[in-house]
Amino acid sequence: MDVSACKPCSLISTCSECTKNGCFWCGTTQDCFDQNALVLSHSYGQCIQWTGNSEECSLLDCPSILTCDGCLLAGPNCGWCDDGSGTGLGHCMYGSTNGPAVWNEERNAYEVDFGLCPLASWYVTSCPACQCNGHGFCSNETAEEESTELLKCLSCANRTTGAHCERCIEGYYGNALNGGVCTACECNGQATHCDPFHGQCYCNTKGVSGYNCDKCEQKYIGDPRNQTCFYELTVDFVFTFNLNGEDDAHITRINFVTRPPKENTDVSFKLTCTGLLNSQGKVNLTVFSGAFGNNRLRRFLIGSACHEVERRFSAEEFLFGTDANTTFFVFLYDFKTPMIIQISFAQTPSVDWMKFFITFALCFFILLVVAFALWKIKQRFDLYRRRQRLFVEMAQMASRPFGVVQLQLTPDASQFRNPRPIAIEPCNDYRAAVVTFAVRLPTGGQKFVPDGQTGLAVASALCTVTPAQLAQLQTPPLVVQRKRKLKRPSCLFLSSS
């Protein structure tokens, strides 16, 4: 820490520097002292008012106070010197009940000096009855009736207002106290009034911003220094603006712009305003189009009530599309917040019912034709699959083993007593076999079987097979087979079908 930068409190001569260094400033003696040295430095009670806060320095500095009542409230070391005009103009000075004073460095005290202000114009305990800050006068009749109180100014000049002409009128800003000047708000025509002390404009148009209402917000286009700002709408969308925030307290108007991009399609406009009664505002609708000839601007709505507005613009009357540059301007004004605004531009083609039903019938007929064609294709495919399956079955049947059997249908007693099987199918373990016989069915006492019935049948039975019979089932060599006749296997009929 740089010790040389530290300055003793007694050597500081200004209130702001004194309080910033952790010292106390005495407004009565206009000197700086240490926090613990009030009694030592002002042992006789010379310091009546002091502070350690830099924000309170102006209250202890008599010359910086602009009003008489503020001067007298600052403390006994301040007094008001009236200029004698009767308008309330004057100066706050250091002094006491004896008169205005000036600081004497040699004596380290204030000395009365009437050269600064005549005694007749010096006020310490009360103020002149008429306090108009130099912008007006009070009537004599009022002064006599209310001599113990501050009088009300009859009229305020210099763009001031108030009971004592103490502030600027709307549209102007500045400090009107003690002859101060009020300056017109510089808002580029986008606001009716501004902050009365600093001059920051309260923009009336939504989308206009800046200290002087000189620029457009994001999503807004235009130049508020010459014209205004517009919110660019997209066709076929519904936009909702909820103007109920603190930033919207001064909003009284909003502007929109859009360009329909579709050719040969009508434009539908809809606007709905929801707000307090009798505060929904008015709307103007202007269209710029090359179809109007030399006068390309045409107004379709002028001062219409913004409650629920609907309008349709025919494509036969206007030239819509990106190349036509037909532009719609919507101006909504004279409303009060809170307010909810819904606005939309739509290019939805109208329904041609004749074309709709013709197209519907044609599509339905085509759908039926396609369904019938698919059904026929499915039939052909199913037939193809059945044929293929039949071919496979026939091929499998043709590949099975088969033999030729000769049947003797003439009566033969030996054959009836000892029939021979036409096929023997042994089981897996060769202990049994399925034996098949050709059976002649009874005719019911007639020579031939009745019509529609068969006289022959194939009967099968599950029979046990003995080893001897099993040996006969084995196929002998071709030479032996010719010389030896196969014996009939004897079997036990277990079942038949």
From TrEMBL:
PANTHER family: DISTRACTED, ISOFORM B (PTHR46376:SF2), LEUCINE-ZIPPER-LIKE TRANSCRIPTIONAL REGULATOR 1 (PTHR46376). It comes from the Eukaryota. The lineage of its organism: Eukaryota, Metazoa, Ecdysozoa, Nematoda, Enoplea. Residues 153-187 form the Laminin EGF-like domain. InterPro entries: GBD_ATRN, LE_dom, LMN_ATRN_NET-like_EGF, LZTR1/Attractin, PSI. SMART domains: EGF_Lam, PSI. The chain crosses the membrane at residues 353-377. Pfam families: EGF_laminin (PF00053), EGF_LMN_ATRN (PF24973), GBD_ATRN (PF24972). The keyword Iron does not apply. GO terms for cellular component: Golgi apparatus. The keyword Membrane applies. It comes from Trichuris suis. This is Laminin EGF-like domain-containing protein. Keywords: Disulfide bond, Glycoprotein, Kelch repeat, Laminin EGF-like domain, Membrane, Repeat, Signal, Transmembrane, Transmembrane helix.
